């Protein structure tokens, strides 16, 4: 018989799955119960940190993200812990000075991180160089990333060229990141094959979302083309805007000459754990559908809900269709960036502005920076008129250098600023928390002593609240004043108005 | 470039999708709005009748199933209409006399049916011979079926042998029917390849459910192996215990050398239609998950919920685990039948009986018939002790002939019986309705003049009912008697008990 090739699996339940399915709201306390099984199931790595989890921890959960990381390190002693890192943006939304990048990577490694999946929204490899060098310096696994997208500027050759740039920077592996589930099976095969042909020794990881319904097939094709590791989420935390089910991925491979050697009993236990936890987050759950329209619109689901709430806030909820048609044009005018944090938000918000106020009448500061090169370089031509408008509006000149070359070292200043905040604990980790989210961190430092807040709710509790609210609206309950009743007082009937006691 | 091969698609939204996702409850009135788009989308066929829909129409919807068929014929003038037919069982749950089979096929064809997917739960091809001959005689498309299952008795060679039997009977095509989503990608490839190698000209259709999460990959592999047509459901009626999404299937093929030539604009309209209809059937919806445990337990989802309700009715809801462990043993003792209607119900119910009353202390009449051969032959050995028990309990002898050989022609008697029923309209169609469901049909004939009943409910209506029920339970509303209030009557406060007016 043919030999079998072992395929690694990265389990994303602890990070991207709940980020995608329930707005990153899952509390650490709802994850710890699954950690022993996750640690023993045989995953290549466990993605559990980074992305939006840092932000959500301090913004919604009053939870110290560094403490979360240390807890995972303790509870997953046999696992490679993996994080998603936005290159020079780290986990924030601007480019940081190189010294902050170095500090962040050192502290993440020190607190237990093993695998740093590092990406740049524009696939500008200059924006990940510093972070990757820092990861290598601390002896951890540096994973470079290709954000997959489709446009007239993108083809297999382009991605292979970007992959060679990452190899030359010194990455230990390369991830194909398909955040919008656009990677169809044949392209998955061709892309992974082309990378492997170019660099046979390079480990290739494939990360697909499930939104369009086709990407488990894409993972199959990627494996056939030579992919080494695939990302999946345990079935009870899978599908919709999330990921393909871990158990299905394993079963899919049976008899194919590839094998994902995971412990099925452990998987069943992990599944059960999250099946029990999930209903507590119903209020944050995205609706659960397959959306193939994304192939044409290029607009990932999270971006649509973002734009919808922006429109509604402006009383223009009826303009959604115009905005959806505007997004591809704005993306073209900005040189065909992939749409992923933060470029998805920047392009989406500008499209909303264009529809509400006239095309490019007002540029957001971020969109102006994007077209002026302050986020890095893109593959396509940027519309010259839009560049002129950005210059006129901001007084800034376009740049072609690495954006962070224009940012001085800033650690000392950030440390000094953080030190002035009530509740600051003196650690470098706290400086980094402040550096990442200067508006949110002060409030978090102040309330941190109150301890983590679990925003999940018992479904019965949610139901009771709904009933109370509905009863109030409908006037079926005693909360409304002056309901007319027939009342018996001392044996006599009266028609009376009733107020709650 | 390589040539592309065109792959047909059978859309199952109008039959198996709502049977699988919402207990077959969808009313015709909720389907008509999608028919124009379905008719023009480019499907190879439209499955819209048979299976459990006939039963559900008269049992729950007060809808004449023959009228439903005629309506589809009118609204889908350009489409091949397809039905699922249980061979000698027709759409009922027993074997019928050959003359009834003939009448049924003739009437179905006359009312508009084009493609008869004909299966037997045991894959005993003697049980489909008569129906297939009848389909050929009326000049319609006769599709033979292999019910896919796994057991020590089942391998590729066995299925190919059954396929050659079907070919020899004269089928126009062969369907691989994977009702429990057990068909993994490699087996899908090997099985379709083996059938195509044996009979290159035979059209092969593949029908997979999505329950285990792997079967879109299986469809990809089946296509690579030569499959001609695959079954899918429009995305808003897909996944869970249902089927893979039609749009995803089409997109999946892009660039592979295979193409499903469907009209994407029509698909988007069909999707929207059912996305709007679906919430009305929330009360009937199965919970929506991926279940890979089925690979080990062999127990499809619908069967589990059946057994659960049987156990609960006996106050033995805590015995579920024992029953789940008993099913594979009962299946083995009965010679490894596939588990599909009616064998799934027969095996499942016997497993429940075994757990509740001791193993084979009591056999159901149906299980006794199964092990005595009255449903046909199975591949494995039937446990001799169980056969003895069945003989003792029923006084019947085992048979090896085709079961229907023991059934006399019965049309005249059925027609006479039906004619005596109030509301019988004198048609052969009514005779067939009575023949299929002799207990339900009389009630249906009586209430038919009231017209079809749409059991879907506006979500707001469901919510209002829930609130009212919850308010009653919680005592927050005036429906509960003797709530204590502070009441002001004539300016004086009283503590009183209140009853609703």
Automatic annotation (TrEMBL), chains A, B:
InterPro entries in alphabetical order: Aldolase_TIM, Carboxylase_cons_dom, PCB-like, PYR_CT
UniProt keyword annotations, A-Z: Pyruvate
Pyruvate carboxyltransferase domain segment(s): 7-268
Pfam families xref list: HMGL-like (PF00682), PYC_OADA (PF02436)
This protein's name: Pyruvate carboxylase subunit B
Organism: Arsenicicoccus piscis
């Amino acid at each position: 018989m043919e030999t079998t090739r072992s395929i690694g699996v990265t389990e994303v339940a602890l990070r991207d799955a709940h980020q995608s399915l329930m707005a990153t709201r899952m509390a650490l306390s709802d994850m710890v119960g699954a950690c022993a099984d996750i640690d023993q199931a045989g995953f290549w790595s466990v993605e559990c940190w980074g992305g939006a989890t840092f932000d959500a921890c301090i913004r919604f959960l009053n939870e110290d993200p560094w403490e979360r990381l240390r807890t995972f390190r303790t509870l997953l002693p046999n696992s490679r812990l993996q994080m998603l890192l936005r290159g020079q943006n780290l986990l924030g939304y601007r480019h940081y000075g190189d010294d902050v990048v170095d500090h962040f990577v050192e502290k993440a490694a020190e607190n237990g991180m093993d695998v740093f999946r590092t990406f740049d929204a524009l696939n500008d490899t200059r924006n990940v160089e510093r972070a990757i060098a820092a990861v290598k310096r601390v002896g951890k696994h540096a994973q470079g990333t290709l954000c997959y997208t489709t446009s007239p500027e993108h083809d297999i050759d382009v991605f292979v060229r970007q992959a060679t740039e990452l190899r030359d920077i010194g990455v230990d592996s390369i991830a194909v990141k398909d955040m919008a589930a656009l990677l169809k099976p044949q392209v998955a095969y061709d892309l992974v094959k082309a990378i492997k042909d170019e660099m046979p020794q390079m480990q290739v990881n494939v990360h697909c979302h499930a939104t369009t319904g086709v990407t488990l097939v894409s993972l199959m094709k990627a494996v056939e083309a030579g992919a080494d590791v695939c990302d999946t989420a345990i079935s009870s935390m899978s599908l919709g805007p999330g990921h393909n089910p871990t158990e299905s991925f394993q079963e899919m491979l049976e008899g194919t000459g590839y094998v994902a050697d995971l412990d099925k009993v452990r998987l069943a236990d992990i599944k059960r754990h999250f099946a029990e936890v999930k209903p507590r987050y119903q209020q944050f759950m995205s609706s659960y559908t397959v959306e193939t329209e994304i192939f044409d619109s290029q607009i990932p689901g999270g971006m649509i809900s973002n734009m919808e709430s922006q429109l509604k806030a402006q009383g223009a909820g009826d303009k959604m269709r115009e905005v959806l048609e505007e997004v591809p044009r704005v993306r073209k005018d900005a040189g065909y960036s992939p749409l992923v944090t933060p470029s998805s938000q920047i392009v989406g918000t500008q499209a909303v502005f264009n529809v509400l106020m006239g095309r490019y009448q007002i540029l957001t500061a971020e969109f102006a920076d994007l077209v002026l090169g302050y986020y890095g370089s893109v593959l396509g031509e940027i519309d010259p008129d839009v560049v002129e408008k950005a210059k006129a509006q901001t007084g800034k000149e376009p740049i072609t250098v690495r954006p962070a070359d224009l940012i001085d070292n800033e650690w000392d200043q950030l440390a000094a600023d953080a030190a002035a905040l009530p509740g600051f604990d003196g650690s470098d980790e706290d400086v980094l928390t402040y550096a990442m989210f200067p508006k949110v961190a002060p409030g978090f430092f102040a309330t941190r002593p109150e301890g983590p807040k679990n925003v999940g709710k018992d479904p019965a509790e949610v139901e009771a609240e709904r009933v109370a609210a509905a009863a109030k609206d409908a006037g079926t309950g005693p909360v409304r004043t002056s309901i007319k009743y027939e009342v018996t007082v001392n044996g006599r009937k009266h028609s009376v108005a009733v107020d709650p006691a």
